[in-house]
Amino acid sequence: MSYDMMKYKQNEMTPEQFAELEKRLKSVFGVSKKELNKINQTVKDLIYLDLIPAQITKAAQKAYPANPLMYYFLQVLSGNKIGLSGIDSIHGICIIYNKPLLYGDMVKVVIERQSSFRGIASIYDAEKMGYIVKVHRAFKNNDGSEEIVTYEAFFNYAAAKTAGFLDRDNWKNHTIRRIELKAMHYAAKGAYPSLFSFIGIKEEEEDHKADSIENDIEIDESEIEVDKEIDKLTNSVIQSSESLNSSFPLGFEEEVIINKVDSHED
After folding, report:
1. Closest listed residue to residue 51, CA positions, set 59, 42, 62
2. Digit-coded pLDDT (tens) for 111-153
């Protein structure tokens, strides 16, 4: 037996653990046995090929000491639901308090893989010190023709300051990038509300928690209350998909606006 196969055998679930996992995932996510077996094989391959970084292994052992493979299963399962490969799921999704969270840089990757995606534009407004991000999504009309709808979001330095984000280290070190990501996240959630109702965005969770979750290995394992502000923002974005030509504030006066407007591309 090779070293890699021995390593996998050491990490393999017992039949009892696998049966318990199957029961829970079927109950919570509606996962079929066929899908679970596929996820199991993906996890096996990732371990066999040594593609799981040590930091993620440490996080898995801390989160699920009795069964660390649960962490990888949740990563791959969550990735499957939003169109990510196994390796992308391992690197792009973390599990915090049993909740799958997508790293902000992966948001663009996820929406680009949707069949209805028709483009994204990120424009810096030097005068307002902010980013306008536009996501174009296609919808089929009854006659079979395609209609392109543009979801637009804007976020700037003033909004970040008002929200108190600039006092945090993760914003101080990457201010411009975080402003762009914030606008992108709002536009993406406006365009694909059902997609992002399944999985959260890690940076969004950080921004609206009293305590940072920047390092998911060192966090306290005690339960935390879901921040009401996150629900408020998410619900507002979802509502934006229900009516055309609408715009509204998301808690930062007029500095953060989601627009859904008709767009016709050649």
Report:
1. 42
2. 999 999 999 999 999 999 999 999 999 999 988 899 999 999 9
Strands 200-201, 99-102: pairing is parallel
Q: What is the CA radius of gyration of the chain?
A: 20
**Sequence spans of domains, the chain:** 3-96, 106-263
Other C-beta atoms within 10 Å of 214: how many?
13
pLDDT digits (tens, 9 = 90+) for 142-200: 888 999 999 999 999 999 999 889 888 888 888 999 999 999 999 999 999 988 887 88
The closest of 254, 101, 99 to 89, measured between CA atoms, is 101
Strand ranges in the chain using DSSP code E only, listed in sequence order? 93-96, 99-102, 117-125, 130-140, 146-156, 200-201, 246-249, 257-263
Residue pair 191/173 in contact by the 8 Å Cβ criterion: no
At residue 153, the 3 state secondary structure works out as: strand
